[in-house]
């Protein structure tokens, strides 16, 4: 396979020590890797080094096939790195989980359809039939998997099978109104992106707009985060807010908040697709 | 006393019913009250009507002295109103409570000194000596009243005496690091303005910047509210936020947050001085 | 026709004088009009009074048919009012003009389809074929009307015929890349909503993201306004901004800006649909 | 002189080529320079590399005295770098130019006085006497240098002498209402920081709040930039905005805008003090 036009993206984190940047950039220079983007960050509290580097594979002196082993033996092991390697020639495959609300769904589908995002969406999964019509309009296979307290375990098994069959890389919960089990989450660590309709950690759980209204806040927010088994407490990827006032009712808070939810979830997905998010210690590094 | 240049400001809230606005505006029209500003709001959940109206006293057909009785008998009692009446000729008197941090203090003093605010500051009270020098530079009497667990009750009594002697109308806690007793608060209901260095209800209590850092939020905030006996849970007057990232340390969160604290507290004080804040049900109506 | 569930919305502006609010609210009270929303504003520089009042028609003592004449004779003429009267039972009809970019289009269609907006979209008009497929997916008739310098006059005539046939109330230019003639605009005064991809009045005209990049601004914006014959200078309905930095390229400015364009245009359309926008002196009053 | 606690800060820009980061970081590693902060940026349109690196001088293998020559000979010349080298042990010296408005002045002085900023302010220069009292309160020598069309050249000469005598490193125009001559500016290239009270490039020149009011914008802004001979067109360091509405008068725009001016100017000064601003091609790189 030709690597024309393909970029490699390397994500690293490891204990900080002098010489890491120098080593990695020297390595790329030695093999004629034209660096397109380089970001690094040092967490000085925990003494951890983070790096994302993207370079062109055309003319690079090591093949896509040999690169993982080469990098592991010569660098990753030496610096005790956690690392991920991606090639832009491989389109990520995303599953969409939804329930009844369509605002996030339309926003995500519009971006994919317009070609703004480099992503495949091979399936939608829902515990309700409400949004099947939208899936049909966008030609995306729709799987209705209703959930009850009794059948949850077995239905999650069905979901997992579908995800596996479709070689899903990551999952987006676009206002999916079910809590995933720890077992399920364990299969997709830092690969399930949720949108919560509040400025976390304020108003976790159910009905945050009602709580915001009752508390009389002057600003509301939305938060996109990776799902962990601790409800609404996973690593935050992106947040945004909008000003409100005493004039707002719960209804107008919901309307204003849904605009936030759309933008915040889509920004988080985009950062994930660009491989710009690293997770450490239940927090994210999001390069921009 | 001449009422040239004096405005009257009337704040009302009462059960909503047809005809209130019509009654009040007709009353002002009948007595040649030139309305400078009129704001109203209806809380449709609780069926409560709120109004702020400001008019010129010059040429008004009822004197400042007679106005309260006249209004009570003809309107307030009829509509079962809670109401407050202010005249702009009377300068509000504010007490400043501080501890060690000076950013809010400088901001407040600068605004008063420049004449942007129509306010007297007859005294500062502090449980530490750190900021006496600033009080001196601005010619404001500084009272050092240290607080310990043992002497708190008696020291609050001293504070209350000072406030009374100085005919204080309202109190601003400009990063005053002591919790006021319920007794103390009871003397100044909806007249003590605090600045909390987080986006409430997220991170109440101590060290919110540290908590924000630990949680990995992407936006931090500040909140100004009236003090109630429920810590950091009083009616919110104003909030604002600023974007942060993984690059921020606790130290830079503090630096960025202090800019928010300054602006948010000063906006809240200004709204209070303009008599634009009404409190109902632990929430505020802030007219703008 | 029953008026159950129908609200009336009255928009007024006129020279300010004492007693207008009192008159109008008394009139509604007299005929048992239950006021749902009342907003007023006085432009003290030009001494102009603005009002929007919405009330329930059920049980109202004057019929929809008689209301216009009654109001004109008893109030509008007396106060020299400009006024508009709407009933929520009549769904506004919107035409969408597009060219090649789809982000605003998807956002508008998603909101209509989900039922968030009370609006009919009987047709799309475009000078390119690119977005026909999206129109098809949403079952909206698509009219391809290419424009050249030579045929512009005659093609605008075709557009106007289509708008008339479809009884269009207002037009949304969702990144329509043609300048409308003054003649065309004259038929839809304050009824054509445009989205411009800059923070006007900065960067009017073509390629604002390139200009923003060249100037090195730290914040970019988007502006929705009514179209007048003066390019990008019509009354502004809504604006919003997002922070950028030296790291942004023209390409990332465009990506970040498109999110603004979506939200800003949709907020403007929503305000227009709610009849919350009044125009005076090339500026808007937007009640919220 | 001991270098205990002293950091070195190196700012670089040069034509981009592979190996620069690697070279510089290797150099610091070789001489035991503990890197505290490293930021780099590549402008891919102009192929320019930017870098800011800060490291501890304690234990560093090259003395402060030898470092400039060593760096020039071994690195700067090789890569054709423009570079600046600072040591944190040397406190920058700032001159404040003011006229009549005090809001920026109080904000700047409060930050210096509280110790938040590492800066000396040896003098204030003003073309009016209005703010002398504030200078006195903060013990800063105040120089009254009135300017007329006739005496401008000679008065600027006096200003320059004062700046030289006081070994001023950079100048802050805190709402100084005079246009500096090109000659004057030439002595302090990228060392004069101005605050303009609009969201540039919108509303350059005089009375921007009046222009914003007349145009009916929904958001106003403030811009801090380095002064060049092209009025209000120098490299932008920082901008911020606040939402306004039809309710705002020119007076309230000014009040809200002044809060922006304070924060924006102070953020720009702080970035300059931290040596985080690089200028290229009339634009800034501001590391954060």
Q: Gist?
A:
Chain A has 288 residues and is of the alpha/beta class. Helices cover 32% and strands 29% of the residues of chain A.
Q: Shape of chain A, please?
A: globular
Helix content of chain A: 25-40%
Which class of the largest domain in chain A in CATH terms?
Alpha Beta
Assembly state of the chains shown: homotetramer
What portion of residues of chain A belong to β-strands? Answer: 25-35%
Indicate the low-confidence ranges of chain A by residue numbers.
none
Order of helices and strands of chain A: EHEEHEEHEHEHEHEHEEHEE
Report how far apart the termini of chain A are: 30 Å
Number of spatially distinct domains of chain A: 2
Explain what the structure shows:
Four copies of one chain form a homotetramer. Chain A has 288 residues and is an alpha/beta fold. Chain A has two domains: 81 residues, Alpha-Beta Plaits (2-Layer Sandwich), CATH 3.30.70.260; 194 residues, 3-Layer(aba) Sandwich (Rossmann fold), CATH 3.40.50. Chain A is built from eight helices and 13 strands. Chain A has a seven-stranded mixed beta sheet. In chain A, helix 3 links the parallel strand 5 and strand 6. The radius of gyration of chain A is 21 Å and the shape is globular. Chains in contact: A-B, A-C, A-D, B-C, B-D, C-D. Chains A and B meet through strand 11 and strand 13 of A and strand 11 and strand 13 of B.
Tags for this entry?
homotetramer; alpha/beta; four-stranded antiparallel beta sheet; Rossmann fold; 2 domains; Alpha-Beta Plaits; 288 residues
